[in-house]
Amino acid sequence: EELGRIEVRLTFGKDKTVKATILAEKPETFAMLQRDSHYLERALQDTGLDSAGINFELADSGHNFNQDNQR
């Protein structure tokens, strides 16, 4: 089963905190990521960063997942 595309944005704070925003293309992927969010939180913490939270968003049908979309 294909999970579709995702986009991950990380925002780093000066105090070694990181806030993640994960944008999923498919509703099934969105639900799976939300369900397993504690694993993602732990992975961030294992890097030595303090997680300031993970936000999950479902992309609208017109979202462009091109790599040129970097900020």
DSSP helix fraction: 25-40%
Structural class based on helices, strands and sheet pairing: alpha+beta
Low-confidence stretches: none
Number of strands: 3
Strand order of the largest sheet: 1-2-3
Give the termini separation: 30 Å
Radius of gyration: 13 Å
Count of runs of 4 or more consecutive helical residues: 2
Largest sheet: 3 strands, mixed
Q: Please indicate the percent range of residues in DSSP E strands (runs of 2 or more).
A: 25-35%
Name the helix and strand elements from N-terminus to C-terminus, one letter apiece. Answer: EEHHE
Average pLDDT score: 87
What is the global morphology?
Answer: globular
Oligomer: single chain
Can you walk through the features of this model?
The protein is an alpha+beta fold. The chain has helices spanning 27-35, 37-46; strands at 6-12, 17-24, 50-58. The chain has a 3-stranded mixed beta sheet. Strand 1 (6-12) and strand 2 form a beta hairpin. It is globular, with a radius of gyration of 13 Å.
